[in-house]
Structure formats: C-alpha cells, structure tokens
Amino acid sequence: MKGPRRTLLYAGAVALAAWALAALFSFSSLGGQFDNNAYDFLYRAFPPRAATSPAVLVVFDERTFQRHGGIRRLRANLARLLERIADARPAAVAVDITLADPGDPQEDARLAAAMARVPGLVLACEMMPDGSGWQDPIAPFRRHAAALGHVSTLAGPYDDVNRRITLERVAGRERRWALSLETLRVLSGGGEILASPADLSVGGRVIPSRWDEGRPLRVRYSEGGIPSVSAGDLLDGAPADALAGKAVFIGVTAISAAPDRLFTPLSRGLPMAGVAIHAQAFQTMHSGAFLPDAPAWLGLLLALAGALLIAGPLAAVMRWHGWALAGAAAAALHILPLICFKQDVVLPASAPAATAWLALAAGGAFRYFYVRRRLEASEAATRRYQQAFHFVAHEMRTPLTAIQGSSELISRYNLPEAKRRELSQMINAESKRLARMITTFLDVEKLSAGQMELRLAEIDAAALVDACCRRAAPLAERKRIRLSNLVPPDLRLKADAELLEYAVYNLLTNAVKYSPEETEVRVGAAAENGQVRLWVTDQGIGMDEAEMKNLFRKFYRTKRAEQSGETGTGIGLSIVRQIVELHEGDIRVQSAPGRGSTFTLVLPAR
C-alpha cells in the first residue's frame, strides 16, 4: 500500500500546487480581465429575453440639439419637455442632467415651475471630484424633487466596459443612493430604503447587493428592451401617451454633449449613454432579474475539487483512461461558469479555467516523470534479476555437474564400496544444496506475494544462533574469522524458527563474506521494553548512508560489495527484511565505510 499511498500523496501535492497558482492568478489583474471577457462572452451568447419595460427613455439626441438650439437651450427645452411629460401622467421622472449651477433666471424659473408639476421627480447629483461633498441641484429645483440620486457609473475593473453600477456612494459623510434606485423607490410609493450587509429592500423588493465596494449591482442589459423617444419629437408636438404610468428617464445621448458614455457587454462598437445605463439598472431591479456573484470561496472550492479530480486519475489510472477522466474533469471546470450563468449566478471563470490547465500540465508532467522513473526502475530491476538469474544458473551448474559426474561414475564403473558411498553422499549433499537454492527463490516469491504464513513457536535464541554459527563455521574457518555467540542462555522469544534461522544465517554469512581475514563476527541479543533485539556485528567493508537507503531493495548490491570479488545475488537482505516485517518487527543498520556494520533485528517478545 505504500506505493499507491505515495502516488496519491504526490497527486494531492500536484493538485494543491496547481490550485494555489490558479488562485493567485484569479486575484491578479490578468485574472480579473479574463473574468470580464468570459462574462461578456456568456452575456452575448445567452442574452436575456426581451420583456415589457416599465421605463421609457426621453433623450436629447443630435436631432434635438440641431432643431432646438443646441446645448445653450438645454434648460429652456427641458422645461418645455417636463410640461409635456407632466400632462402624460408618468409614474416617476428621473432627470439625468446635473443642474448644480444657476442659469438664466427666466429659464430657471420656468424650469422650476415645470418641475413642480411633475409627480415623483428624481434629480441627479454628482460627487465632488475630491469626494468632499455633493454637487446638488440648485435650491429652486431641489425643493420640487422627491429624491436626489447620484449618477455615478462604474467602468471595469481593468477595462472601460460597464457591467455594474454602485447603488450607494458616500461623500462628506452623506450617503446618496443611485438615481435608478431612487426612481424605483419613488415608483414603489416612496418608502424607506432598508439596508443590510447582504442586500437592500425597497417597496417589497429585495435587491442582492453586498455592503462593500459601494453596493455593486450587475446590470441586466437587454438589447432594445427599453423604448426611447426623442425629446425633439415631443417638443415638436408628438403625442406623449407612451409615457403614461411609466418611469421616464430624461438625459443627453448626443455624442457631442454626453461625456458619460461607456461600453457594455452588449455593445457593438458604440458606447451607451449614462441615462440609458441608469434606465437599464432600474429595469434590472424592477424586474428582479439579478445576476449575483457567487461567493469567492465557492469558486476556489470547486477549482480545488477539479484539481484533485484531474491530478488523481493522471497519477493513479494508467493508459488513456487516466487522460480521459482528467479531460472530463477539466471540461467540467470550463463548463461550470456557463452552468452558473444559466442559473443567474456569476461564477468567476479564471480560477476554474486556470486550475484545469495547470492541473493538466502538472499532472501530465508528473505522469510522464513518474512513469519514466517506474520504467527505469523496472529496467534496472530486470537487469539485476537477469544478473542474479545468471549467477544462480552458474551456481546450480556446480551441484548439477557434481551430481551428473558422480552418478555416471557409479553407473559406469564397478567402484569399491567406500568410493560408492562417498559419491552417494556427494550426490545427496549437492542435491540438498540445489534444493536450498530453489527454496530460496521460492521463498522470495512467497514473501513478495504475502503468501508465507508464520509457524510461531517458542525459541531458544542462544540455541538458534549457535545452529547458525555451526552452519557458517566452514566459511569462517577459510578466512580464519572467529564467530562469537554472545546471546544470553535464558533468552527466549516466539517466532517462526525456520524463517528466523534463515534471517540470522543470512546476516551471519554476509558478515563473514565481507569481513577481512582474522577478524571477529559477534552475535548478541537482549530483551527490553517488550522487544527482543538481536544483532550481528562485523569488522568488514561497511557502507555509506546512500548505500544503506537502498540496501534492502531486491537484487541490490553496494559498489564495495561488487568490488570485493565476493559473489552474491542481492536478494538475501530483501528476504531478511520481509521475514522481520512478517514478524511485525523492524531491521536497523549502523555502518560506516571501513568500520564494519551492525545489523539489528527488533522483534516483539510476544
């Protein structure tokens, strides 16, 4: 389970790294612009349905200025226009023309008189450039207004496209609501606007708008959704019946006289005048067709889930199936903003999209290097296995040659009884040696597959070590190495005698093989804290830390072991480790180049 668990941990780390980078990107200016572009694309692809509008635009366009004296006659024409509109009995009238400075006294007097006749009049005010206060209409106009509303629009961020307006602005410690919101309040009966941290309430309508950033509201723009009437036509006597019962927004749309012109998501190369933006915002609030923003944490959480769903299959599922699952998760992250938009919720697209691509790239790179590393490790293991197999085949040839030669001598010649007995004993010994080689390889496979079961019994540790020393004595005698059994005579433990003897014998023969002549190999043991520690210490070639890390890998041999001239397969220590782990124990190594090694088996005392 260590391999799969490590793979999943790596996949989780890859997913977290991709998600963290995507989160940083989503909060950057580039990510903000990406969100804007994605929002505009979705808005143009799925525009809102046209609906009957409660608002009407009455605009001072180019034609009005050409036929009625231009901007110099604006107040006089506005007074005549308001008189016409008052006769039509609209529900509310919002004037998006700042009247903060006195003009011609006679024109101002007529305009004030016209305002007095208009029901539900909402006049525009603007914030001072330094934010210290408000530029309100002059007193003769202000006294006839049912409300004052600010006309600030909101471009961007990061571009000149208007997607939102601010419903609340504060200047000089005085709060003003937006012209469109005040018009809605007047139309709804003039009640108070109730504010909470998450929304506004006016006339029984709840408007989702958080308290920060001036209470932003996304405008639900609709192409051709608000009818427009030229002020020049009304001044020329055109009927005004279409204004009855409506919220009338009056403003300047002539390019030469309207500085507040901004692009919108539906713009086709032509910006929209501020009065039209306010009318669209009014229609958005009146119809309740809101586009609230999804919480920032939701987008990040979905992006994190997507990163895990991408990196996980790339790390755990091999072949093309992993790519298919990861591609499906990446596609889902790209579709999420569309699904939310269809449900009238705006989910920023930068975090999910960036997460998808970064997770695919990082997961793909991890998959490539992981698979490449596995391939290299597999090839190295194959090479080591082939080397070990060649060694074993060579080793098997020796007893087979002896068996074959002895059997031929017995069958072909009439040998003396003593010689026949000697050859028979050699055949028996060599066949047992061959059987032990085969058993060793079978034990490797059984241990690797977890198929070997323990046959636990009470063991005399000193007797077990003594048996191992007797078996290793011929090898030690050839190098004049002394074997010392320092295990206390009363030390007992519960283990599989055959497997534990194999483990100790393997450590003992390794110690003898890699120790110089006329040295000593000591075997000791002790019981403490519910454990039995059994160690083998030699005065051999030793190992460095890098070699000790790989020591228990199957078919691994250290460079010093290979240079020593001693033959070996590199599988003995891997079997020892598996035997110890099968006993729920641990094996530890202390070594240094040229200073010998100590292998310690830590087993439960049971």
Q: Output the radius of gyration.
A: 45 Å
Please indicate the count of domains: 4
- The shape, in one word, is rod-shaped
CA distance, first residue to last residue:
26 Å
What's the overall average pLDDT, rounded?
Answer: 85
Class inferred from helices and paired strands = alpha/beta
Q: Major β-sheet, in short?
A: 7 strands, mixed
What proportion of the residues is helical, as a percent range? 40-55%
Counted by DSSP, the helix tally is 18
Percent of residues in β-strands:
15-25%
Poorly predicted ranges: none
Number of strands: 24
Explain how this protein is built.
With 606 residues, the protein is α/β, with parallel strands linked by helices. The chain folds into four domains: 2-42 and 294-369, no CATH class; 49-287, no CATH class; 375-448, Signal transduction histidine kinase, dimerisation/phosphotransfer (DHp) domain (Helix Hairpins, Orthogonal Bundle), CATH 1.10.287.130; 453-604, 2-Layer Sandwich (Heat Shock Protein 90), CATH 3.30.565. Helix content is 50%, strand content 18%. The chain contains 18 helices and 24 strands. Strands 1, 2, 3, 4, 5, 14 and 15 form a seven-stranded mixed sheet that branches. A hairpin with a 2-residue loop joins β8 and β9 (174-177). The radius of gyration is 45 Å and the shape is rod-shaped. It starts with a helix and ends with a strand. The mean pLDDT is 85.
